[in-house]
């Protein structure tokens, strides 16, 4: 059976675990409706469930092969089962279909998702193998997201991460053996690249899957761990997240020249039955590679091939790579805004440098044309206005008029331990803002709750309590004078 597969242009290998019903309704439905002969389809079932898969799939003519436990073991089993040099297309068992986008560049908000016809799947696989061979790549994959705004008509070549949901490669055989239980897709491309072999990612194709359904990883990882830290917080770690952390650390040690760092998914708070509120550590670790990627335009997405993708006729090739980077409308918009701001700043600097006026506000006054002023004045703060203005009246102390000057109400204590209140500040109790009154209450140890009027009355009562009986007489003499000052200031 394996030797016969070598004569085929390529074969389809589907690792599966606990998804007999899903594989029939999703991936097998896709490949069979695409017209791929069942003799080229191989399902690698978990050895504990091989009999169940054979009963369900062999009547359909699909080849069922006993696999290994774990996703890493399954991938090693696939590479060792087929002869070296065989073109293998690995697919997940929960793929609903392939999608593309009407947009040619990233962040095109007018782009719409377009489902690729199932009948075009064999032609797409042949095309991707041909492009990979032309560019010297031994592995190709599709974009990890099915978001139409993130897809672009480009190919990424080199050390590029491609999802294993749909991946094609030239079988290296037992020469390559994956070692990490999860994140084995990272390990495979790292091993290929360390051997001087390139990988390719097709950025204009994505997949619709049911990866959160029953079976697969949901059935393989079920033993959650609960840990309490020093602050008595409960941490719930997904079993796959724990394995991903170990795998990321191992890959960093195996490939220190290629892997720069590992990114941990964000910890979120989650309510769990019988546990309450926990800090949930979800799976989703990723590796960051050194920049060893080259982008090229997918100019082949045009004409007859574009029609096979479901984009319709008269699709012209687009320039989607500029200076080695993928065109991103969002990034381009931000760059244009920064350039406009830089040009405006340069013009203002030139105007201020060329003007002989002493007042910097006059340097940016709009020019007059035909007796009319230009609209859109540019206001510049005068750097000379850094001191608060003061006003002095006859027989009275100067006081500030600067609006940002904050007056603070304070109670002082003399050496005889008798309290008195600052009379000059008492005049402003009812004129200060609520924030200033709240601050004064807090400084005196009073409550800062209530309206502005309540706060002012609370401070006044506090002053009278501190000054005692003599304070009432003093207030009676001081208030008329202070009212005069207050009315003068208003």
Short description:
It comes from Symbiodinium natans. Helices cover 34% and strands 22% of the residues.
Describe this structure in words.
With 490 residues, the protein is α+β, with helices and mostly antiparallel strands. Among the domains are: 2-220 and 298-309, Spore Coat Polysaccharide Biosynthesis Protein SpsA, Chain A (Alpha-Beta Complex), CATH 3.90.550; 390-489, no CATH class. The protein has helices spanning 2-6, 20-25, 27-33, 50-57, 71-81, 121-134, 184-194, 217-220, 239-254, 303-308, 329-354, 423-426, 434-443, 452-489, and strands at 11-16, 41-45, 63-66, 87-91, 95-101, 113-115, 137-142, 154-158, 163-170, 198-202, 206-209, 225-228, 234-237, 259-263, 268-272, 276-281, 286-289, 293-297, 321-322, 325-326, 368-369, 372-373, 390-391, 399-400, 411-413, 419-421. The strands form eight sheets. It has a nine-stranded mixed beta sheet, with helices on both faces. Helix 13 (434-443) packs across helix 14.
List the total number of helices: 14
Q: What is the CATH homologous superfamily assignment of the domain at 2-220 and 298-309?
A: Spore Coat Polysaccharide Biosynthesis Protein SpsA, Chain A
How many E strands? 26
Give the biggest beta sheet: 9 strands, mixed
- Low confidence ranges: 360-364, 373-378, 396-425, 477-490
Distance between the termini: 99 Å
Beta-strand content bin: 15-25%
CATH topology type of the domain at 2-220 and 298-309: Spore Coat Polysaccharide Biosynthesis Protein SpsA, Chain A
CATH class membership of the domain at 2-220 and 298-309: Alpha Beta
CATH second-level architecture of the domain at 2-220 and 298-309:
Alpha-Beta Complex
Q: How does the helix and strand content classify structurally?
A: alpha+beta
The residue fraction in helices comes out at 25-40%
Rg, alpha carbons: 37 Å
Mean pLDDT: 80
Shape: extended
Strand order of the largest sheet: 3-2-1-4-9-7-10-8-18
Protein name: SAP domain-containing protein
Biased composition (Basic residues): 374-387
Region (Disordered): 337-387
Organism: Symbiodinium natans
């Amino acid at each position: 059976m394996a030797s016969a597969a070598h004569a085929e242009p390529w074969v389809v290998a589907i690792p599966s675990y606990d998804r007999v019903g899903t594989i029939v309704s999703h991936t097998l439905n896709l490949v069979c409706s695409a017209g791929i002969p069942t003799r080229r389809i191989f399902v690698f079932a978990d050895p504990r469930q091989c009999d169940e898969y054979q009963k369900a799939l062999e009547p359909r003519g699909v080849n069922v092969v006993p696999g290994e436990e774990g996703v890493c073991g399954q991938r090693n089993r696939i590479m060792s089962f087929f002869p070296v040099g065989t073109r293998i297309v690995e697919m997940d068992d929960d793929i609903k279909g392939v999608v593309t986008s009407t947009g040619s560049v990233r962040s095109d908000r007018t782009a719409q998702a377009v489902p690729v016809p199932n009948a075009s799947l064999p032609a797409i696989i042949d095309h991707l193998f041909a492009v990979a061979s032309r560019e010297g790549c031994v592995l190709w994959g599709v974009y990890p997201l099915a978001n139409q705004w993130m897809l672009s008509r480009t190919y990424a070549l080199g050390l590029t991460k491609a999802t294993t949901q749909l991946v094609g490669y030239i079988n290296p055989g037992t020469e390559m053996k994956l070692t990490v239980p999860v994140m084995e897709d990272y390990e495979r491309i790292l091993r290929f690249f360390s051997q001087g072999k390139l990988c390719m990612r097709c950025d204009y194709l994505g997949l619709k899957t049911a990866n959160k359904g029953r079976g697969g990883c949901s059935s393989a990882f079920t033993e959650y761990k609960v840990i309490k830290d020093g602050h008595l917080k409960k941490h719930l770690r997904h079993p796959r997240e724990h394995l991903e952390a170990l795998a990321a650390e191992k890959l960093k040690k195996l490939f220190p020249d290629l892997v720069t760092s590992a990114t941990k998914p964000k910890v979120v708070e989650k309510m769990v039955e019988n546990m309450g509120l926990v800090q949930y550590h979800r799976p989703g670790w990723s590796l960051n590679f050194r920049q060893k990627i080259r982008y090229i335009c997918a100019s082949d997405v045009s004409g007859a091939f574009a029609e096979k993708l479901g984009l319709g006729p008269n699709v012209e090739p687009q320039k989607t790579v500029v200076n080695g980077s993928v065109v991103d409308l969002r990034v381009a918009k931000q760059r244009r805004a920064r350039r406009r701001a830089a040009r405006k700043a340069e013009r203002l600097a030139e105007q201020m440098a060329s003007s002989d006026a002493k007042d910097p506000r006059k340097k940016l006054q709009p020019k007059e044309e035909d007796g009319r002023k230009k609209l859109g004045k540019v206001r510049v703060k005068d750097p000379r206005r850094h001191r608060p203005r003061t006003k002095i009246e006859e027989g009275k102390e100067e006081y500030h008029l600067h609006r940002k000057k904050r007056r603070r109400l304070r109670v002082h204590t003399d050496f005889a331990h008798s309290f008195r209140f600052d009379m000059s500040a008492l005049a402003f109790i009812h004129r200060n803002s609520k924030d200033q009154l709240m601050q004064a209450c807090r400084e005196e140890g009073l409550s800062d709750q209530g309206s502005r009027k309540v706060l002012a009355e609370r401070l006044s009562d506090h002053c009278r309590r501190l000054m005692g009986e003599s304070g009432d007489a003093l207030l009676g003499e001081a208030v008329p004078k202070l009212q005069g000052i207050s009315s003068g200031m208003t």
